Amino acid sequence: MKLLTCGFLFALIFSIDSIEKARFDFYRVYEVKAENENQLKVFQQILDYPDGYRFLTNAPAVIGMKAQLIVPPHKFGEWSELVKNFFIDATLIDDNLQNSIDKEEARYLKRKAIDWNSFWRLNEIHSWLDELAASRPNDIRTFSVGTSYEGRDIKGVKINVGGGNSKPSVFFEANIHANEWIGSATATFIINELLTSNDTNVQRLLNYYDWWFLPVFNVDGYEYTWTVDRTWRKTRRVTSNPLCRGSDPNRNWDVNWGSYGGSNNPCSSGYYGDFVFSEPETRQLANFLNDRFTNLFGYISFHSFGRLLMTPYAYSTENSTHIQKLNEIGAKAVDEIATFRGASYTLGTISRFFGLVAGSSVDYVELNQKPTLTYCYELSTNHILPNDEIKATGQEIFASIKTIFSEAIDQGLA
Hints:
Blueprint: H1 8-13, E1 28-33, H2 37-48, E2 54-55, E3 66-71, H3 76-86, E4 89-94, H4 97-110, H5 122-135, E5 140-147, E6 153-159, E7 169-174, H6 181-196, H7 200-208, E8 210-214, H8 219-227, H9 280-292, E9 298-303, E10 308-311, H10 323-341, E11 346-349, H11 350-354, H12 361-368, E12 373-378, H13 387-410
Parallel strand pairs: 7-8, 7-9, 9-12, 10-11
Antiparallel strand pairs: 1-3, 1-4, 2-3, 5-6, 6-8, 10-12
């Protein structure tokens, strides 16, 4: 693979660089599974009133759903009682979260070049996008969705090889949740493969579509996961509760906002915001999409975890009007992932796996831009990954992306 390189008063006085990093020494991570209604109520209470607990993932909202839950040392006793009293299926997957974070950081510090053996800082991603655009100004340009709450550029890249305005457009959105680093890594991997592969099918795809990539949507949250708290999921806007910042940007869109699938507590990782589109990031991306795309062909959203390939909707048990083709092509994409290295992805609607969820980006785009192909990926099986998992995830997901958009051409959809 080639690589293309080309206290409030305290907050007012000191920059974020002076803030001490959150540590998670001896914090445990459990994989939990909801098996009955009583357990769902327990998990919703933890989401609404975390008191030291934190879901790394979406909280279980439907029977059968799995999630990852951080349990701090001072809650070990309480958690043990909850597991015993409610017969919770809980598997310990990390007995010292800080060790895993330290190993991840050590890999980054040892890196000698930008590659897909470790994750990238936000400034590295943005600089790389700038270098791509400078290296091929006729084919590649950067774009800005807008400015985040903390003043960062929400930057992406558009690839249009050969020019023309009539090509079908495909938009990739990644890292809407700040701690899901594998999303941006996968997005940049796909960009690199599209631009460097000698495979004739990849070159056909490169020339056939307009490719839009937003590798890091939640730029403030993403930077915060590097500088302060690796487990952070939300944005960083000040909420109605001055002690609790941020909202879940995938609960903040104008699709049955605030109805279900989130929390009305600003201190919760699932807080859906003070009002619909309260977050400047979600509001600006919605405006960007509405202003530029009257006939968007494809929309892809990258999340983690769970190894799922999902179709709309989240807010309803109804299916997309394109569900037959989504299932047909999605099944082929899932099969392609499995043949690559044996990873097993499951295909289905978002509501099937997560229950009803209001305010998601995928539903908003599906209802407003009405793409022919809309998919939401849940990548990998964890947030903190070994070196070889980052690149391998990129490879298998790119294989599925090739399948999806090749099928669209071959079937005359695009």
